[in-house]
Amino acid sequence: MLWLVRKRSVDFCDAKSVKQSRNKQKANLIYTEWSLNMSSGLSNEPPKIVDGIFPTFVNLTLKSLAISLEDAKNRYEKGIVGEEAVASANWAVTNQAIGDERGIPPTKEKLLQEEVVLWLNVGDERLEIVPGNDHATIAASALINALEEMSSMVEGFLSDRSSEQAQEFHRVAILQAKPEKSPSLEGKTDWQYDKNTDTYNAV
After folding, report:
1. Is residue 138 within 8 Å of 116, Cβ to Cβ?
2. Is the entire prediction scored with pTM above 0.90?
C-alpha cells in the first residue's frame, strides 16, 4: 500500500446508520490527548516532545491500528457482533450480515462475506492507501491481514525513515502536531518547527 497524498479526514462510511464504537472513541481520545498537550497554552514553557513528533505519531497510529485489529478479530474470528455494525478506528462494515428471523446472529461464514471500508488516519488527516483514494473497500476476510500489514509498515518507519511512505507520514505528522493556540510566553506569537529536535518552538 502506498500512502502518498494527504487528504482531510471526514466522517466516512458506506453503511447505513453506523454508530461510533467505544473503541473508535478511544482511538480519537489518543489524538485528542496529544492535541490538547500541544495546544493548551496553559504553561509558561513551550510544549516539549521528548522523542520527537515522528516517533510520537508512529506510536499513536500503532495504538489506533491495534484497536482496529482487536475489533476485526472480535468480529471475524470470534463472531462477536451486536445488533448494528459499528465503525472501528480505521475500518467500517459496508454491507452488514443479518441474522435470521429468530434473532440468531449471523454465522462467522456470513460475517466473512461482508465488505468493509478501510482507511488510515494520522491525527485528523487521512492518507492515501490506494492510488487516488484515501480509503479502500475490501472483503472482510482480508481485513485482518490488511490491518496487520499496515501496522507492520508503520512500525517499520521507526527503523527506516527513508521510504516515500515514511517521509509522507512524517510530513503530515508535523502539520498535525503544530499547536493551535499561540504560545503563552511573553513576546512569542507563533510556533516554528525545528527539524533538529523534531518539535515546535515558540518564536
Report:
1. yes
2. no
